[in-house]
Design brief:
The chain contains five helices and no strands. The protein is mostly helical and 114 residues long.
Length: 114
């Protein structure tokens, strides 16, 4: 008796992944093993870079806060230290937004902690 395999399910599984790799270059889009490896590696990069994105944005916010703080005669670390001492809980994302888009509000925050 021949071996019974569920060809419908395995074909559907492969087709589903090959649809996800549409637009890839060369055999990465239509050769099953190459497409599978490429897609899996892409998922690893996506997971890693979701974490890296958060680091990159925090770094950007710190640079913006530092640039604005230096215009007010403080360094970034001095400003953050004064904020902690004054019990002003404002995160770096909001501080950076104030520094970029509302410089007068940022200046008011700096004056408050000085």
């Amino acid at each position: 008796m021949p071996r019974s395999v569920n060809h419908v399910a395995s074909r559907a599984r492969r087709k589903k992944l090959l649809l996800k790799t549409r637009g890839y270059f060369g055999s990465r889009k239509n050769v099953w093993t190459v497409a599978k490896n490429t897609w899996e590696k892409g998922q690893q990069y996506a997971y890693r870079d979701r974490k890296a994105k958060k680091r990159n944005f925090r770094s950007l916010w710190i640079q913006r806060i530092n640039a604005a703080a230096r215009l007010e005669g403080l360094s970034y670390s001095q400003l953050i230290g004064l904020l902690k001492k004054s019990n002003i809980e404002i995160n770096r994302k909001v501080l950076a937004d104030l520094a970029m888009n509302h410089p007068e509000a940022f200046k008011a925050v700096v004056e408050k902690v000085k």
